[in-house]
């Protein structure tokens, strides 16, 4: 069956094993890099670099920068998750 028909007739759902739902290193690294990179981009205000003056209100610019700071914090949190805090029990 082709991939296109799978969109309209998806296979039946199944229960995922514990191995399939645990955090992998590559997933954590991509989430960290993406959040930190987007946070730096938004937080420095480069989004508004070539903007004409008066197009966006000041409150909007500050909220975008604050969102960038939040994304940097989330990237730092994801960086340390599972080895500095939220350690899973490895019994």
From TrEMBL:
Protein's recorded name: DUF4536 domain-containing protein
InterPro entries recorded: Mitochondrial_unc_protein
Domain of life: Eukaryota
């Amino acid at each position: 069956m082709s991939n296109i028909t799978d969109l309209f007739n998806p296979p039946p759902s199944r229960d995922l094993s514990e191995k399939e739902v645990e955090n992998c290193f590559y997933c954590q690294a991509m989430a960290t890099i993406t959040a930190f990179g987007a946070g730096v981009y938004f937080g420095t205000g480069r989004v508004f670099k070539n903007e004409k003056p008066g197009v966006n209100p000041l409150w909007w610019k500050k909220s975008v920068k604050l969102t960038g700071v939040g994304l940097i914090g989330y990237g730092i949190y994801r960086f340390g998750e599972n080895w500095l805090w939220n350690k899973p029990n490895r019994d």
